[in-house]
Every structure is written in structure tokens, then in C-alpha cells.
Amino acid sequence: MLASLKQIGFNLKYWTLLTLVVGAFIFGQPAPASAHCDSVNGPVVMAAQQALEQGDVKLVLPYIQAEAEAELTAAFQHTLEVRRLGAEAQELADHYFFETAVRLHRQGEGAAYTGLKTETDHGPALAAAEEALEADALETVYLVLDQAMQQGVAEKYEAVQMARAIAAEENTVEAQRERVEAELIFEKYVYELYTAALGQTLHAEGGESHSHGTAE
Questions:
Q1: Which domain holds residue 206?
Q2: How far apart are the C-alpha atoms of 140 and 132, rounded to whole Å?
């Protein structure tokens, strides 16, 4: 497939355009995982809450890097002390600890901390992933991913068919250009899905790209 892209003359303009289009579709809907970890109903805050309820800081330590353990442990002990002062003090102390945990988590990922986000529905993908972790079953994950991929592929393939029909009818350079662009978007979209399925992660938690597999 890549050979065919080179034959078509896949220049920098199209690479930039298609990367933005595919990236927005795959990784922009719904909110990214970084926002998930920043939210009050995200895994970091949930772990921090469990740590306070059970009096065990070890429940939240896995979400931060080893070098930040001392800071989070100190914040944990301070929070436990302030919680004894009453309900209002407990609420403030808990919020302080949640913010500290999320800040240190983001710091470990090399990303900026911009405050806790309100509780948000992040869409079916994260919900399915969380369900799989709790139920030790992947059926819902497979279903959500399969539906999303089929919809995306079908929409872009339909755009190709429409562009080809218009190009055949009008037979102008502009119409042919639109056809080529639609074809390239379709090819690049399928290629990005394939490389992602092989284990390539893009900008996880605000960090750099990582690849756990190769694709030619």
C-alpha cells in the first residue's frame, strides 16, 4: 500500500492534512485519556479516595513515579490529620490530596497539570475498558472498537465512491483532485488503524509517541 502512495505522489501537504483528519477521528473523540486521568471520576482520584477511606496510601502509589512517593505520602499523612477536624475540613483536605495525586501522576507522564476536571462522560471506549478491567472480559471492548472502526472505514469509503462518481461525470482536474484526496484519506485512515492495532500509541498522557511493534 505504501508503494502505491509513493506512486501517487503523496506530498507533505496531504500527509499533514490526513494526519490531522485521522488523528482527530481516532484520538479526538471523545475526550483524551489525559483528561480522563484529570477528572474527579478518573482512576487516579478514585484510587486516592480509596486510599483515604482505607487508610492505606499504597492504594494510590502505583499511579505515580517512585521519586514522588515521599511527597504523596507526606500529603496523605497531612490529609488524614486534617480530616479529624470535621466535615468541612475533611472535604478541603480530600480535595488537596486528590489534586496532589493527579499533579504527581501528570508530572510522571511528562505532562502539565491544569487542575481537576469535573465528572465527565468520556464515551463508550473508556467505559468499555474500565468494564473489562473490572469484569475480566473483553467482549464489550471488542464490540465498541469494531463498531467505531467499521463506521469510520465505511464513511471514508463512501466518500471515495462519491468523489469517483463526481470525477467521472465532470472529468475536471479539480474533481480528479478531490477524488485523489478522498482515496488518500481512506488509505491513510486504514493504515493508521492497522498500526494502532499493532500496538503503536500516540501521545499517551501527554508524553512522546511510543511503538511496541513495527509496520512497513
A1: 2-30+123-211
A2: 7
Q: Compute the distance between CA of residue 46 and CA of residue 133 in angstroms, rounded to an integer.
A: 14
- Greater confidence (59 vs 141) lies with 59
pTM here?
Answer: 0.50
What's the one-letter identity of residue 77? Answer: Q
Q: How far out from the chain centre does Cα 91 lie? A: 30
Q: Which of the two residues, 14 and 69, has the higher pLDDT score? A: 69
Backbone angles phi, psi at 60, to 5 degrees: -110, -15
DSSP string covering 20-46, please? HHHHHHHHSSS--HHHHHHBTTSHHHH
Domains held by the chain: number: 2
Residue 118 lies in a domain: no
Torsional class of 136: left (φ above 0), alpha (ψ -120 to 50), beta (otherwise): left
CA distance 73 to 124: 34
